[in-house]
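Example record

The entry below shows one chain as it appears in the dataset: sequence first, then structure tokens.
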Amino acid sequence: MTLLDDLLADLKAEGDQLWNAVAGLDEAAWRTPTPAAGWDVATQVAHLLWTDEVATLAATDKTGWDAVVLQAMEDPTGFVDTAALEVARLSPPALLARWGKARTALTDALRGFPAGEKMPWFGPPMSPASMVTARFMETWAHSLDVYEALDCVPEPTDRIRNVAHLGVRTRGFAFTVHQLEPPAEEIRIELKAPSGEIWTWGPEEAAQSVRGSAYDFCLLVTQRVHRDDTDLVAVGDDAERWLGIAQAFAGPAGEGRAPR
């Protein structure tokens, strides 16, 4: 299996887990508020399916993608929320059916995308592997909001390595989006996976470091937890500053979560 195959398998497993959690819900449960202000369970799923559809356009339909970009330019800060809230008006069966088609279409589009090329996106162009990693991160993060709303948070799996990897790779972006100069000094990251394995990034000899739970790190870089509520230990000013502003998602700096 290729790297893309592995990533797509992880994305499917994460999506299937969310699907199984919401498929049997009645209308009232779909309207359960989630931790994201103004978003209920339906809105979270609607956001995921809409983004899958847009990613498919980016990979397969330049005209369709250009039209989306023009719409986004009209309302850069509210475009995504508006789309999610609109799609969320669908009935639960229609929402699930459309999400199922979007998931399959995105997988097919990425498998068929020309090797070595990159597709356009709202930030820098992305390879299919990078797109799947980003879709995994979003699926995982928004699923957490749904699970919390439904009081059914599943056990973490080592699939979250995809989120952790993206969180590390976006360190410079996190500084830039806060109008800060990204640190030039390397940072050593050592995270304990749900399985107990230790995942590492950066040189062993680095003077600055971040160590702790991979799950807490993934919650932090998707802004599903406040820095004070993690077990992460930072050594060095840059490392600590990074943990205060970390975000693995594109767009403006998020508000994050309040301390428990």
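Notes for this example: The CA atoms of residues 62 and 120 lie 9 Å apart. The mean pLDDT is 96.
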